[in-house]
């Protein structure tokens, strides 16, 4: 179990690095927010895997909060992009 | 290792593969909206599988229950944020090369809630909302009962604002959910295939307007959500009077193809949420 969780976390970290490449490259805000969302989701996934290894249940609220922030943040940025373009 | 732990581990590994393919996809895909195709479908499934798998692997049914709620939340919200971001990217002129574009000629009127409908009080719905609240707090007490009642009142008020005489058929909903899960899996397989195969030449992006037959807003929202989980399509806009869905497709063949696909989903949805004929 320990080995599997470690492999999962390393793989997720590599995925987060890939997503960061897109966040840096852009070219527009919409691309960056999609990429940053994905980094957060991969992070929450890694925490969930940690929860499976340690049996500590505190990962649940963290995953809930990440899911909420990803949604609220994306909607906010989408609104901002639409507002920016009407200016 | 118990059987549930093995299942949980398998789910976690699958979730990892799915989420990493999403990351690869947003690097690999050519245009902003196509990258949203790559991100929205796998991200929700990936985290849902990881959370569910972690719950099972830790051997706790309560954790798995909460993870299931997180999964439902993700499947409801991810298409909405994908839709809003896709529309914003389109308005920002980031849509890339489109073979066909119905949204350019449209003057969409945003979807609004209908007139509030009176009545429609349901003990089951209130009880379910309160139960979900208690499950989230992992506490059955007077405090969570009051909190749950407040939440249920808010949700019911919002729901009533959107209700245009729509019924709920349990059997239709079960059929819809089974097909929905199948769609989520096949759309993820499709995205995975697109990411693994190096060629992006077959991608022909287009935006197609699809008029909906239904006049019920809940049904239209469900169709919009389901479209975002069908392989190669993403809802970009939903307009009222009449209800028209604007779908972004990755592999455009013909307009009839897209219409046919959405009509199929609409039939499934209308069996789960039929309109009330005698109001």
Plain-language structure description:
The complex is a heterodimer of chains A (87) and B (279). In chain A, α1 (2-25) runs antiparallel to α2 (29-54) and α2 (29-54) packs antiparallel against α3. Chain A has a single domain (2-86), classed as Helix Hairpins (Orthogonal Bundle), CATH 1.10.287. Chain A has 3 helices and no strands. With 87 residues, chain A is mainly alpha-helical. Chain A is elongated, with a radius of gyration of 15 Å. Chain B has 2 domains: 3-111 and 166-272, no CATH class; 123-162, no CATH class. A 4-stranded mixed beta sheet of chain B has the order 1-2-4-3, sandwiched between helices. In chain B, a hairpin with a 4-residue loop joins β3 (233-239) and β4 (244-249). In chain B, α1 (3-28) packs across α6, α3 packs across α7 and α6 (170-196) packs antiparallel against α8 (255-272). The termini of chain B are far apart.
